[in-house]
């Protein structure tokens, strides 16, 4: 006898229980070891070898969240998570995701989800104002899954703008040695070779040297090659360095190059007016710009925002219109079909969670979130600077502090390992110059000043 499929009543009862489970997790997350201690293969060993033939009760499923899932979670939402960059989750965003999943909208066309399309356009116009972005970005924003996809879209638009008259193998792109790995991946996915991407040296703050970029471009032009793209970073992953966008734009203007800016984490800081000069310098001269609300703007992964000065280059690159997608609204030209602004055809209603966050926190609540983290990171940087055992290796203008033990790489790596093995905090590392560096990225949703102070006491204890 087949079981009846779960219906609305089943969903209602289980939903109440699971919302309570998530709320308890948010309350209790600080109690767990920040990094999961399980060994590879542990999770699969807890699972039965075959899928169930009969429906299982919700109680058994929920119990396995505690038995199987929680022990094997590295807790990105812990206030003691200082690794990588934050992946913010918040109550309003979680609920926005729930509604999006419940509606099950496939928003590939305006016609398949008018609310999905128009709320996205409108909310991204709100962000233009809130972040102090150029007015010509209004109506020209789109939500991608991540900065990696946004960077790929920029590469594709820039490539196809030039390949109408230039052979693909003559094209050259440029970015910093400190740029995110997604830039190289985007170049490769776009059909170019790795050696068609030039990585440009940085200065002592780890920002791209505009003079080195100019020299590299001029050498390539002299050699019969065609520069088509420069990617600047506003807040690099390793050290949160800011490339000189205005100076890079001068080079791009001289050689008809597309200029894209990856501001994945740091873009959110522009919601605080006093931080905009650092974050938004030169932005009025760029062709495309992206940032991740899912990093530092209290919006659950995944949610990246890409703005384009002129979207037509991207639409021309990605638009494919089979007969089965033709419809009256699209043919009228009066609507946006976001399927032409991204690589996949299908798209989720991601704008709902961003809409919920902006409305529930308000601009001032989001500003205070950013300011709190910047204050805490600068406090930590001052502690590092005042301790003879450590050397800070990069500016700490926003929310990232990079430092090393003065006794050398072995001592720094040993300290890094001890911090994470303690279970009391999690930090990650990079290399700056030739030195192993501990990165402390402040920004988890629930991190407050006293958590940063607790981290510093742990560093002091274990060093």
Give the class from helix and strand content and strand pairing.
alpha/beta
- The second-level CATH architecture of the largest domain is 3-Layer(aba) Sandwich
Given the structure, what is the number of helices? 16
End-to-end Cα distance, whole Å, is 64 Å
Residue ranges: pLDDT <50 for 5 or more in a row?
A: none
Q: How would you spell out the order of helices and strands?
A: HHHEHHEHEHEHEHEHEHEHHHEEHEEH
Number of strands: 12
State the shape: globular
Largest sheet: 7 strands, mixed
- Beta-strand percentage range: 5-15%
Read across the widest sheet, the strand sequence of neighbours is 2-8-7-6-5-3-4
Query: At the first level of CATH, what is the class of the largest domain?
Result: Alpha Beta
Q: What is the CATH third-level topology name of the largest domain?
A: Aspartate Aminotransferase, domain 2
How much helicity do the residues have? Answer: 40-55%
Mean pLDDT: 95
CATH superfamily membership of the largest domain: Type I PLP-dependent aspartate aminotransferase-like (Major domain)
The total number of structural domains is 3
Gyration radius, in Å = 24 Å
């Amino acid at each position: 006898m087949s079981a009846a499929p779960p219906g609305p009543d089943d969903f209602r009862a289980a939903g109440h229980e699971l919302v309570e489970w998530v709320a308890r997790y948010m309350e209790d997350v600080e109690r767990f070891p920040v990094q999961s201690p399980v060994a590879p293969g542990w999770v699969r060993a807890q699972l039965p070898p075959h899928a169930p033939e009969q429906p299982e009760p919700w109680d058994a499923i929920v119990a396995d969240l505690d038995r199987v899932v929680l022990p094997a979670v590295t807790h990105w939402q812990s206030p003691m998570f200082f690794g990588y960059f934050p992946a913010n989750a918040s109550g309003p965003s979680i609920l926005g995701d729930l509604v999006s999943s419940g509606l099950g909208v496939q928003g590939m066309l305006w016609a398949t989800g008018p609310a999905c399309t128009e709320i996205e356009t409108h909310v991204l116009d709100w962000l233009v104002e809130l972040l102090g972005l150029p007015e010509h970005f209004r109506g020209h924003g789109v939500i991608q899954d991540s900065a990696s996809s946004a960077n790929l879209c920029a590469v594709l638009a820039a490539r196809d703008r030039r390949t109408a008259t230039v052979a693909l193998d003559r094209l050259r792109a440029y970015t910093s040695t400190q740029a995110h790995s997604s830039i190289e991946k985007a170049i490769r996915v776009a059909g170019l070779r790795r050696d068609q991407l030039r990585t440009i040296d940085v200065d002592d703050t780890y920002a791209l040297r505009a003079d080195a970029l100019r020299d590299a471009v001029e050498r390539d032009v002299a050699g019969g090659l065609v520069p088509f793209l420069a990617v600047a970073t506003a807040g690099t992953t390793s050290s949160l360095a800011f490339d000189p966008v205005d100076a890079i734009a001068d080079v791009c203007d001289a050689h008809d190059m597309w200029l894209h800016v990856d501001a994945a984490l740091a873009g959110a800081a522009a919601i605080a007016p006093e931080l905009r000069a650092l974050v938004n310098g030169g932005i009025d001269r760029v062709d495309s710009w992206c940032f991740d609300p899912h990093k530092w703007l209290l919006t659950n992964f995944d949610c990246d925002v890409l703005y384009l000065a002129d979207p037509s280059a991207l639409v021309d690159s990605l638009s494919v219109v089979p007969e089965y997608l033709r419809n009256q609204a699209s043919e009228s030209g009066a609507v946006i079909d976001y399927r032409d602004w991204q690589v996949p055809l299908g798209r989720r209603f991601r704008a709902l969670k961003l809409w919920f966050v902006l409305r529930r926190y308000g601009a001032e609540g989001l500003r205070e979130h950013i300011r709190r983290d910047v204050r805490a990171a600068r406090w930590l940087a001052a502690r590092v600077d005042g301790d003879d055992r450590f050397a800070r290796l990069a500016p700490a203008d926003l929310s990232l502090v990079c430092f090393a033990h003065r006794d050398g790489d072995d001592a720094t790596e040993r300290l890094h390992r001890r911090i994470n093995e303690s279970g009391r905090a999690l930090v990650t590392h990079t290399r700056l110059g030739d030195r192993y560096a501990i990165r402390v990225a402040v920004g988890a949703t629930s991190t407050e000043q006293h958590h940063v102070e607790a981290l510093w006491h742990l560093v002091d204890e274990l060093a």
